[in-house]
Design brief:
single chain; alpha+beta; globular
């Protein structure tokens, strides 16, 4: 009915434009509608591929962690039991079936409205390596845009539209909605890769270390303790008030949320503390006993083994010197992920990514719009928020600055830190809110962006997609 109504409205618009009435009502033709689960039906029985010209649709948006039992069975029926396909969004099934269907008629063109996560992070390597291996070519793409429904209580979702086929297209178009008000910025591309960028079909691999010899990025430390090694501010104060000598044993414990929002949490850091000393403090001993009991109940053998060492974190990656910290999750509203330096006395949780030997130069490059554009394209998402992983950092193509350019980036990086220090009462959430970002911090970031761009030998970019396309070219040059 909706299709007929839209057809009728368009006919009225054409009539007004050309002065000739085009009337299709009363309806004398009807559509052939098959109702069913598209992942369980044989598409060739609905319409033979030789009679089909286009496949289009808006498959259900369901992330891998939210599927119900039937959807899990659908995924397994389409993708099989092998490989990492369980990590894919539900939408991916339609891409797989459409690709197989088009093999019988390569002239078919397909387009799906989809979750943007299938073109970000780890899903690119799982899904698109499979599709490109079968000859899929992306013909056009609408990069991420927000789609709101008028239905009551419905949330806005972040979508993409991907048009693809098995034959080459006459032209390749990217519709970019960055800063767009209504009409998108349209790019005539040479090729569209799985990240929806005008670049070669590069799928970033999982790397253990960065490409250009820089320090490794690691997750922070993880207690796996049932919460018994973690303390609130009140719990910390109560122990220290009764046992003042324990102050050195209780350290600030910061994850991404605490780092950005200035929240306080603490942990028992009993590394190198003698058991004889620990036994003098009853509330700490009670917590340690609870840690041991919690670990013994774990289904993971390695965690159960750590029940023998309940005073320690199961994963200790705490640096011995100050380090660079990047929150794992950050709001997609921000132009820049807030990053910063932390003292070795502050324990980083596993919700922070850390670089042990992070320098002022690295802080400047990682804080730049260039790196943040890369992150937005190749990183994953948690709902719509940025999800930063070491693969973003490890695959990032760094510039090769001259000594003068490197000093300039160090100077602009320090200026960012100085601008933050001008607002001691503000949290990073306050400072990096796009609506309330202080002018001095905004200017400091702008100067840093220019310094980093210059180190890449570039002065201006029209869009963020153009930046990422440039970075993919540099990445390809580095791996070659």
């Amino acid at each position: 009915t909706a299709m007929w109504l839209m057809d009728h409205q368009m006919n009225i618009a054409i009539s007004k434009e050309f002065g000739n009435a085009f009337v299709r009502i009363p309806l004398v033709k009807s559509a052939n509608i098959v109702q069913g689960n598209a992942l369980q039906l044989d598409w060739t029985q609905i319409i033979p591929p030789q009679q089909c010209s286009y496949i289009l649709g808006n498959p259900p948006f369901v992330g891998h962690q939210y599927r119900n039992k039937i959807q899990m069975e659908d995924m397994q029926a389409v993708w099989g039991k092998e490989g990492r396909y369980r990590r894919l969004d539900y939408v991916s099934c339609w891409y797989y079936l459409a690709t197989n269907y088009m093999k019988a008629n390569p002239d078919i063109r397909t387009a799906f409205v989809s979750t943007n996560s299938i073109c970000q992070g780890e899903q690119v390597g799982i899904l698109w390596a499979q599709l490109i291996g079968q000859g899929v070519i992306i013909h056009f793409a609408h990069r991420t845009f927000q789609w709101s429904s008028d239905a009551p209580g419905s949330a806005a979702v972040h979508c993409i539209i991907v048009g693809f086929g098995l034959n080459q297209a006459d032209h390749y178009l990217i519709f970019d909605y960055e800063n767009a008000k209504g009409e998108p910025h349209i790019v005539n591309a040479q090729k569209i890769n799985p990240y929806l960028i005008d670049a070669e079909n590069i799928i970033l691999p999982s790397r253990n270390r960065p490409m250009q010899g820089l320090s490794a990025m690691l997750k922070g430390s993880q207690p796996t303790d049932g919460g018994h090694l973690i303390l609130s501010e009140d719990e910390r104060n109560q122990i220290i008030e009764q046992f003042p000598f324990t102050e050195e044993w209780i350290r600030s414990y910061i994850g991404g949320r605490e780092f950005i929002n200035g929240k306080l949490r603490y942990c028992l850091w009993l590394k190198n503390v003698s058991h004889a000393e620990i036994r003098k403090v009853k509330p700490i001993m009670e917590r340690i006993e609870s840690v041991a009991k919690s670990r013994l109940k774990s289904p993971t053998p390695s965690v159960r083994q750590w029940a023998e060492n309940p005073t320690l974190f199961t994963q200790d990656r705490q640096p011995e010197n100050s380090y660079l910290a990047i929150p794992e999750v950050s709001s997609e509203r921000r132009k820049y992920i807030p990053i910063g330096f932390l003292s070795e006395k502050i324990v980083a949780s596993n919700k922070l990514q850390i670089i042990r030997d992070g320098s002022l130069y690295m802080f400047g490059v990682l804080s730049s719009v260039m790196h943040n554009a890369w992150m937005r394209s190749v990183g994953g998402r948690l709902k719509s928020d940025y999800s930063y992983s070491p693969s973003v950092y490890n695959n990032f193509p760094w510039p090769e600055p001259t000594a003068t350019q490197r000093r300039q980036i160090e100077n602009t990086a320090q200026a960012i830190l100085d601008a933050r220090a001008n607002h001691p009462e503000a949290t990073l959430a306050d400072l990096y809110d796009p609506l309330t970002m202080p002018q001095d911090l905004r200017q400091a970031h702008h100067a840093n962006d220019q310094a980093v761009d210059k180190a890449y030998g570039k002065q201006t970019f029209t869009t963020e997609a153009e930046r990422v396309g440039f970075l993919f070219q540099r990445y390809q040059m580095l791996i070659e």
